[in-house]
Amino acid sequence: MNDYYPFINTPLPYAYDALEPYIDQKTMYLHHDCHLQTYIDNLNAILKEHPDLQTWSLKEFLYRWPDLPPSLQIPIRNQAGGVFNHRFFFEEMAPPEESYIDLDIVKEIEKNFTDLNDFLDQLRQAALSVFGSGYAWVVVEQGKLKITTTANQNTPIDENMTPILNLDVWEHAYYLKHYNLRSPYFDDWLHVIRWDILKQRFHEAMSSKTESSS
Ligand code: MN
């Protein structure tokens, strides 16, 4: 994944219609080729004027933004967040026939929630609770799975929190199919989650925690 300026919009890892009937082709096309592309173009345009920042990785912008000049903090946080959040979201989905529940990650979920249904209920409530535009997230915090939300294109990335799943609840993610209804969009999304990626991200979060504390 290209992590440095100039950022390019890498293709989706599946066809635009691969998530049908749960997420429609037109939504995927607009979401990837127009919405994500705009964040990439805007981020490149800002960085073009600031060569000293062209060596920062995408993730650095997300957790080092307080080190940026004050006038750039919000614009870069918005644009870099828009790039990271969308790539993360698109990567974690797969055609419904490839979306198998992974028993290892379910075991982890059951350590922190009553059961898988309780976890999914809480994730749904989080997604529905976002007022306006934002994301629902599953993060690893101090070795534990947690659900959280962010507004706009903010991310929960900091020293203690590593995201492993996000759901884009901006209306552009579901409006063409579900109009104003976020709840059936959530139900559809459950059919296209790549649980193997969730497991992989969980293990990466756990091992980076061990490295940084050793
Ligand atoms: Mn989006």
TrEMBL record:
MF terms (GO), sorted A to Z: metal ion binding; superoxide dismutase activity
Catalyses which reaction(s): 2 superoxide + 2 H(+) = H2O2 + O2
Keyword Oxidoreductase in annotation: yes
E.C. designation(s): 1.15.1.1
Residues annotated as domain Manganese/iron superoxide dismutase C-terminal: 105-201
Manganese/iron superoxide dismutase N-terminal domain: residues covered: 11-94
GO-annotated cellular components: cytoplasm
Keyword annotations of the record: Metal-binding, Oxidoreductase
InterPro entries: Mn/Fe_SOD, Mn/Fe_SOD_BS, Mn/Fe_SOD_C, Mn/Fe_SOD_N, Mn/Fe_SOD_N_sf, SOD_C_sf
Binding site for Mn(2+): H31, H86, D168, H172
UniProt xrefs under SUPFAM superfamilies: Fe,Mn superoxide dismutase (SOD), C-terminal domain, Fe,Mn superoxide dismutase (SOD), N-terminal domain
Family the entry assigns: Belongs to the iron/manganese superoxide dismutase family.
Function: Destroys radicals which are normally produced within the cells and which are toxic to biological systems.
Protein name in the entry: Superoxide dismutase
The organism of origin for this protein: Candidatus Anaerostipes excrementavium
